[in-house]
Write a structure and sequence with these properties.
With 141 residues, the protein is of the alpha+beta class. The chain has helices at 15-24, 51-58, 79-91, and strands at 7-12, 31-32, 37-41, 44-50, 71-75, 95-102, 108-113, 119-124, 129-130, 136-137. Strand 6 and strand 7 form a beta hairpin.
């Protein structure tokens, strides 16, 4: 298997509300088919889909857990950008779980949960680069 993540699908309880939240953060769906939104995110795709349909499709019973042990990350180029994104999420109803602050790795980050409880970290990591398209570039060893 090649190292690649093609799509990340977030199960949402209210499709219209979830889609409006991400659009309010500046995301624009490339496709919107049968209450499924596909957002192009550089080399991968973020998908919003009914939580119940996703659980059925994956063959997993949905116990309603609010923490699945997964965090999505959005890397930005500066500490100021971390604050901007966190404030944007806050203003659209996100729960801020960690206010922006210095990190153990020498960076700067904050975190929030979207309207369905999906965890996002917004980080500036001076050890990682960002290319012209905003893709994270890991340092070579």
């Amino acid at each position: 298997m090649r190292q690649r993540i093609s799509l990340v699908t977030l199960g949402v309880s209210d499709y219209a509300r979830a889609k409006a939240f991400y659009e309010a953060l500046g995301w624009s769906p490339a496709m919107d088919i049968e209450e499924t939104a596909f957002f192009q995110a550089n080399g991968s795709i973020l998908v919003l889909w009914s939580r119940a349909k996703l659980a059925e499709d994956m063959g997993i019973a949905d116990d309603g857990a609010r923490w699945g042990g997964i965090a999505l990350a959005h890397n930005v180029g500066s500490q100021d950008e971390v604050h901007q994104v966190i404030e944007q999420a806050r203003s659209h109803g996100a729960e801020i779980t960690r206010e922006p602050s210095a990190t153990f790795y020498g960076g700067y980050a904050g975190a929030f949960r979207d309207l369905d409880g999906h965890a996002w970290e917004v980080a500036h990591n001076p050890g990682f680069g960002l290319d012209g398209d905003g893709n994270v570039v890991l340092p070579t060893s």
